[in-house]
Design a protein that fits this description.
Elements lengths: L6 E5 L4 H9 L2 H7 L9 H11 L6 E7 L2 E11 L2 E8 L8 H12 L5 E6 L3 H9 L3 E10 L4 E10 L11
Length: 170
Amino acid sequence: MTQTSQVTLRQTEKADLDFFFQFQLDKEANHLAAFTPKDHTDKAAYVEKFAKFLHDPTITMRTILVDEIIAGSIAKFEQEGDAEITYWIDRNFWGRGVATAALKKFLLIEEARPIFGRVAFDNLGSQRVLEKGGFVKVGTDKGFANARQAEIVEFIYQLTWQSVKPPVAE
């Protein structure tokens, strides 16, 4: 990220979903995310699903902006009683520290702990983002990844109040 770029978060609005839908159509991003809907090209289903999340009190959704340009999304949701984090960054912003900055800002407003992050075994960039955010790898799981049409290993990361470490330098 350049010294003049500023990463901010704001409440997600329904209009943002059009941007998010376009971001997840990127083949490389979809492959790295791995655990995606069966048909990630169905815009109506995508918007319907995520529009419901905007009003769900158990979900915290934020839009990631870089210099007021929509660069991605980040959210906390609950799965089987556990708080989990998810984020998606437009590939135009990869490698610029945007995900790391957004995660750190998000964790200041989202107080759920422990909070888990799951990432495909070969998504090294996302693993690094979680580690810079203070998450610690606590396990592995296997699941069917629609984007790859195969069962793959995913790493499970956890952040607790005790696991918060000083930030890792960029």
